[in-house]
Amino acid sequence: MNKVAGEFVELAGKRFSCREFSHRPVTSPELAKVLEAARLAPSAKNQQPVHVWALTSEEALARIRTVHTMFNAPVVLVVGYKESEGWTRSCDGKNWAEIDATIVGTHIILAAADADLGCTWVGSFDPVKVKELFPETDGYELSALFAIGYPSATAAPSERHFIRKSMEEFTTEI
Ligand SMILES: Cc1cc2nc3c(=O)[nH]c(=O)nc-3n(C[C@H](O)[C@H](O)[C@H](O)COP(=O)(O)O)c2cc1C
Fold it and tell me: What pTM, to 2 d.p., does this model score?
């Protein structure tokens, strides 16, 4: 169980939250790859209750930066979902739309790493303020923001990146 191998595990290990970006622009084809990976994410009963807004214009980026620096990333993705479009489990009424949105988020951060882009998942934002700034998101709950761009020369993983539960703590074989 301790031995890890394979390109995917390498990718998962190399990914880190990047909070310093270079001025190198993210091209449309590069962004398209990340968005395609996000679009392909699975969802409960395939109901796809998630929408992604890609902030790429200087005007939109300036708007989002009024409520969060987003580490001055050249691209910000806003991920939202509609509970009304998600699957609700009949036995207990649990709605899966928010979980579907986090799966999209997971695809985003890994696809960004695969494209050698830096990315940070940002949950510490005020959804009311972001929704005010972007009326396009009306009717959606906001799940997360994603700062995306090429890492600066000095970008490095934070100390937290290296802290993970041991396999023994994390997994139980039964
Ligand atoms: C759901 C979620 C919310 C997060 N919110 C923030 C955030 O608001 N600001 C931030 O700088 N990092 C945020 N992060 C990044 C985490 O701090 C980071 O993933 C964690 O410390 C592990 O570091 P690593 O991503 O470099 O491996 C968030 C990550 C997740 C998964």
Answer: 0.96
Ligand 1 site residues, Cβ closer than 6 angstroms = 16-17, 19, 120-124, 157-158, 160-161
What is the distance in A from the centroid of ligand 1 to the CA of 158?
10
What's the CA gap between 32 and 40, in Å, rounded?
A: 12
Which stretches of 15-71 are DSSP H helices? 28-39, 58-64
Residue nearest to atom 1 of ligand 1 (CA): 123
Contact 98, 44 (CB under 8 A): no
Tens of pLDDT along the chain (174 residues) come to 445 557 999 999 999 999 999 999 999 999 999 999 999 999 999 999 999 999 999 999 999 999 999 999 999 999 999 999 999 999 999 999 999 999 999 999 999 999 999 999 999 999 999 999 999 999 999 999 999 999 999 999 999 999 999 999 999 999
Class of 16-170 in CATH: alpha beta
